[in-house]
């Protein structure tokens, strides 16, 4: 429809609806102003409401269209700490990521903190022969890498917020996330007891936030109760990996953390990829059990779950973990010339924020610290 026809059409509506106070075209002054521009004969495709370009024609007005802007404070950087003090080993399947010994942690993190890094999530990687056993004893070994790293970071980089992943799979000889019965099936009650003890050890060592990723039923309640009993529940954030799906996107992480199950898989405790209703139930359960933050993992293939999490946990922060396989895929795609790495890193992360997350666990964190300054 040409603009002049549109004006005629609107004038017609105006005369018909002159008593309709809700109609913008019923105001006489407005109708006259359209008529006065009739000579321009500007052609537009639809009615006035179809005109959106002005709202995003400038980089700043484009940014204003997002409900959440990516900021440095939203990012948590995963760090792998080994029991070999001087180790600094690149992880082949995770580009630009390394396994760090205790002596490397502060020199590695210091420049990132100066660039604005606010938070890390720690994973322990015991490499010493015999470090793993059926109970995951090394998880809360006072001489082990994670407990040492918590205290070291709190002492040396006091401005950094320390989140610690809580699980047994990096420390158990069988590589599963809990304690097993003799037949190899999961002993949920013992697993919850053990996982909550490990969480307490991290909390008492100074972790700001403990993040159980084991998916054993009832572990959030057990950890919360122990935090309350210990009198530290007011200072320790409890972030639940509430909706953690099983799948093939964890490969590079297991390579990094040495946590591949020696038999079977994790399907009895991680969620099936199609299980949207189950995820919603797990999220509700973990809120009821005392979680302070709800996490969804992986992120990009589960944006509907992130959206569900924000819907269910309206008054809580929602975190999403862009896992190792997602990160490695973006790197592989960029290397193959499919897209530009930085553009895709932003696009994927903005998608995660748009879905509802306000916290993103991301291997891109060091690069975002630079990119967000530009
Ligand atoms: Zn695990």
From TrEMBL:
Composition bias type Basic and acidic residues, residue spans: 10-22
Top-level class of the enzyme under EC nomenclature: lyase
Pathway: Porphyrin-containing compound metabolism; protoporphyrin-IX biosynthesis; coproporphyrinogen-III from 5-aminolevulinate: step 1/4
EC number: 4.2.1.24
CDD domains: eu_ALAD_PBGS_cysteine_rich
Protein purpose: Catalyzes an early step in the biosynthesis of tetrapyrroles. Binds two molecules of 5-aminolevulinate per subunit, each at a distinct site, and catalyzes their condensation to form porphobilinogen.
Protein name: Delta-aminolevulinic acid dehydratase
Origin species: Lithohypha guttulata
Phylogenetic placement of the source organism: Eukaryota, Fungi, Dikarya, Ascomycota, Pezizomycotina
